[in-house]
Every structure is written in structure tokens, then in C-alpha cells.
Amino acid sequence: MHTSTVALRPAGSELDFDGELTLLLPDLRRRARFLTGSTSMAEDLIQDAVERALRFRSSFVPGSNLRAWMMRILSNTFISNRRRQSIERRVLEQAAHDPNGWTNGAPTGIKLGLMRALERELDRLPPRIGVTLRLVDLEESSYREAAEELDVPVGTIMSRLHRGRTRLAASLREKLAEGPLGGEAALPTALSA
User: Fold this and answer.
1) Would 4 be classed as within a structural domain?
2) What is the pTM of this model?
3) Using H for helix, E for strand and C for coil, what is the string for the chain?
4) pLDDT above 90: percentage of residues in the chain
5) In a domain, 141, yes or no
6) pLDDT at 97
7) Which of 1, 7, 15, 124 is the most exposed place for a label (fewest CB within 10 A)?
């Protein structure tokens, strides 16, 4: 068991963030291979985790344990990827049995119109609420991942989601009732509840 602790050195020292991160790659590879059971899948997982770490490097506290921070990112990325794969598999299985599903021809005007309307209405929401909805509902991030990415408590994420979904549903309901999408009959059951 490897228990090295890599603490980020101050700027201008021998190794910077990128250098310290490079030193962790062998540990990350071992952990990723353990999680995925495959060398190629492990490399993809490492790439995703390192990309996320570089994107959010400003949230790393210099002098703290970079190895622990990276292992947490690696684990969270693995969990998110597994969750996404599971959801995709379920959606594909359901679509194969859905007589109105996408596998049975071109999408209908209602579906395309709903997606355009959804995008427009998401853009009209306050930015913090819109970003939160996109992260959790469209990108399928967990509440905790969204909270970390936006640097807010999980409760704030839940509150923003509730407000955003409520506003979005009301707004879409109005637009669909008055628009060319076929009125109230075209509303999905989730929005008309």
C-alpha cells in the first residue's frame, strides 16, 4: 500500500501543481485499474479525473494533501461515469420497446419544439439557477458534484433545483399552451403534474 503524501509546494519552487500531479499518476493508475478492472478504461478514467482536477485547480488548497484530493476526484469521476452508463443503458432499453421512441423514425415536431423551448427557457432563468439545472438535470451530476463544482452547499443546490424546476415547468406550460406545439395535450406528464 502506497501512502505518500504530496503537498503542493509554493509557486516558484521546484515542482508546481502540474509537476506534483504528474508524480501521482502511478498511484492514480493503480487505483483506476482497481476500480475499472481494465487498463484501457483506467486510462480513460485518469484522463477524465486529471482534466477535472486541472479545470478546478483553483479549489485546491496549497499545502493540503494533493493525493487525497486527486483520489477523491478519481472516485467521484468513476461513480459519475458508472451512473451515466447505467442511465444510458436503461434509456436505450426503454427506447427499444417504446413504439414512439427515437429508434422508430425521425423525431416528431413536438419533441424538437420542446427541446428548443426548453433551451430558451433555461437561458431565461437566473444564471445560478440555470447552471444548476444544466449540471444536475442535463449533465447528470450528483448534488454533491454540483455543489463542489459551484462551490456552494448541497442544500443550496437542492433549493436552486426546486426553484428552477418550478419556474421552468410553469414557463414551459405557458409557452406550450399558447405555442405551435399543440397546446396542453403536448405537455409531458412530468410538466403537467
Assistant:
1) no
2) 0.43
3) CCCCCCECCCCCCCCCHHHHHHHHHHHHHHHHHHHHCCHHHHHHHHHHHHHHHHHCHHHCCCCCEHHHHHHHHHHHHHHHHHHHHHHHHHHHHHHHHCCCCHHHCCCCHHHHHHHHHHHHHHHHCCHHHHHHHHHHHHCCCCHHHHHHHHCCCHHHHHHHHHHHHHHHHHHHHHHHHHCCCCHHHHCCHHHHC
4) 18
5) yes
6) 63
7) 1
Does residue 119 share a domain with residue 149? yes
Q: CA-CA distance, 154 to 151, in Å (whole number)?
A: 9
Grid coordinates representing 90 are 436503461
Structural domain contains residue 151: yes
Q: Provide the residue range defining the domain that includes 25.
A: 17-94
C-alpha 146/C-alpha 154 separation (Å) is: 8
Are both 81 and 143 inside the same structural domain?
no
**Structure confidence by residue, pLDDT tens digits, 67-122:** 999 999 998 888 888 887 777 777 766 666 655 555 445 444 444 455 777 777 88
Q: Residue 51 maps to which CATH number?
A: 1.10.1740.10
What pLDDT is recorded for position 90? 73
Residues 71 and 4 sit within 8 Å (Cβ to Cβ) = no
Residue 63 in grid coordinates: 499545502
Q: How far apart are CA 47 and CA 52, in angstroms?
A: 9
Distance CA 154, CA 182 (A): 38
Q: Give residue 38's pLDDT.
A: 85
The parts of the chain modelled with pLDDT lower than 70 are: 1-15, 92-114, 176, 179-193
